[in-house]
Specification:
alpha/beta, Rossmann fold, 2 domains, seven-stranded parallel sheet, 20 strands, globular, nucleotide-binding, helicase
Amino acid sequence: MIPQFKNQFEKLGFDELSPIQSAVYEPLKNGDSVLGLAPTGSGKTLGFVVPVLERLAAGQGIQAMIVAPSQELAMQLTHVTRSFATLLNMQVTSITGGANVKRQLEQLKKHPEIVIGTPGRILNLIEDRKLKTHDVQTVIVDEADDLLEGETFDTVRTILQNVPSEVQLGFFSATETPILSELEKWFGIPVTRVDVRDIDHTQGEVRHGLLEVSNLKKAGMLGKLTSVKQFKALVFFNHVGALQQTKSWLTHHHVPVATLSANQRQTERQKALTDFRLGRVKLLLSTDVAARGLDIAKLPAVVNFDLPDTATIYTHRVGRTGRMGEPGQVVNFGDDHDLRDLKRTLKDTDYELVPVYYQDHRLGTKRPEQLEQQSVDADQVFEPEAKVAGEVRTDPTAIQPASRKPRVKASLPEPTKKKKGHNKHSKRKGMRHKREE
């Protein structure tokens, strides 16, 4: 590694290279095509950025492209790459869908050495002859398991058909899909496989909890979790509709939240991420597409508001916490049936799922004691509470401590008898007479 990069690593607080960084450094620097498999949060970005930059020459046009599945990840990659590229007087340009294309074209006219972007925008600019690829010698496909599926697979293939045939390819992912074992078949060049998932121990201790809660109570429980000391979470949803509905409920109950979804403008998404990173909000509600590959430093928790359908999706979601040795907490919402399904989905993984409970502004694995059953006067008004499978369930319209106890029915004095006929009248023959005692 060149001295400038060694010094930068030390400034970032790294004493040594992570397993994936060590394993792919020489192959990438030598120009080999590589498939890099490593756990989430293990330093894959610097694993390909450093050796690729060392192969480039300043002032020689676009020589490298990095393809990312989302705007947020593209911007994150741009920030990391630029911090190293400036040490070599190189420029990095980001081109993503949803951003101002005229501004991106102006940046391309400055002849950057590296372009980072989303596949759709990259291909559009190539086809419009605005993005010149004849000098490209390296293309990195980040989150390859995601990008090499569905429509984006065809888009990535078309991009690679527009670069020189001798191009170096790099594919990086935390999980393996069938397509990753057929890369030579689809792209026509041999690809060296580097898998460090079994030897990488950079991830911190992450607890995976099952919190039993019905669908109608999820928003209320999410609001309650914000009262837990130092709690801050990236909250995953399967659909934008449920995300927006939950945001509305939380906002109505004065719980500050931010959202991250594909239908937002880039400026809105960037503000949401900034507010979350700076601690202005404790909850960032997101879909899988928007949060893929995000690196949020020291993120304490991930909440699966909607449970994922596959183990791969679960791995990428929970990989947002416990990164680079930091501890983390995963909270999975669902009823008894949902949580059993999740256990079956993850039965072939190493995740240890344990029940967790919320009580007195805390999350813990110890089941709270059953509330004592007490009779209550029907005329008394209070929020009903009941213990169901260890969870304190309350009216979802009020976020309140779970320790509140119902009032005990008071003993009432015997009613006194009124004197018969006192101040009472009866009708007799059309006239009102005072009743005789």
